[in-house]
Amino acid sequence: MTFLEKSRGAFIVLEGCDRSGKSTQVKLLVNRLEQLGHNVMLWKFPERKTQIGSMIDEYLKNVKDVDDKAIHLLFSANRWECMSEMKKKLLDGITLVVDRYAYSGVAYSAAKGLDLEWCKSPDIGLLTPDIVFFMNLTSEEAEKRFGFGNERYEEKAFQEKVRNTFNFLKDPTWKVLNACRAVEKLHKEIESLSLKTIQKCSNLPLKEDLWK
Ligand code: 2DT
Ligand code: MG
């Protein structure tokens, strides 16, 4: 554990299936927190700009095929390679609003049939978020939003499996949001819970104990 002399930023994660509105909401939240004078930064996983991230990008764009377990470990390595920078920012007082994290890692790989515990293991000990918002869509609403993208995984039957794995994975600390609602309504709820979280964790140590 890292003990603090000054207040730290909050580690806020948004999770959910494709087209659940995560990217819209992380942007709105970052803008709003900035307006309110908070020190804040948007982060996204996979972080495609690193060397590992560029391999993941090629895989997602169907330029390359990679073994299911190998790509799972690359997604995890992509998080680990960002940990020291994220930790530094949080300790510098910067709140990180993060679009996807290890929960996506497990949900997408386990949806392919990989063992859930095996999927969790490489991410054990990562920074634990201060709050996880789960953008929950009904399967009817999810269906309406499909028939779209051309990246790997953007396909109805697979997304249904991912939804099921997320539902299995979610724990009582997650804030499960009804993501079928209007953008602005959702944003207000996320904003208010985020502000409480920022306040609550400002003088708590960072936790590096995900799934421990
Ligand atoms: P975006 O559409 O949000 O760029 O995500 N994914 C993501 C995994 O399979 N494992 C992971 O660890 C992460 C973070 C979810 C790209 C796709 O990558 C999937 C969708
Ligand atoms: Mg996508």
Automatic annotation (TrEMBL):
Belongs to the thymidylate kinase family. InterPro entries: P-loop_NTPase, Thymidylate_kin-like_dom, Thymidylate_kin_CS, Thymidylate_kinase. Residues 14-190 form the Thymidylate kinase-like domain. It is an enzyme of class 2 (transferase). Signal peptide: none annotated. Pathway: Pyrimidine metabolism; dTTP biosynthesis. Keywords: ATP-binding, Kinase, Nucleotide biosynthesis, Nucleotide-binding, Transferase. The lineage of its organism: Eukaryota, Fungi, Fungi incertae sedis, Mucoromycota, Glomeromycotina. CDD domains: TMPK (cd01672). PROSITE patterns: THYMIDYLATE_KINASE (PS01331). SUPFAM superfamilies: P-loop containing nucleoside triphosphate hydrolases. This is dTMP kinase. Transmembrane segments: none annotated. It holds the Pfam family Thymidylate_kin.
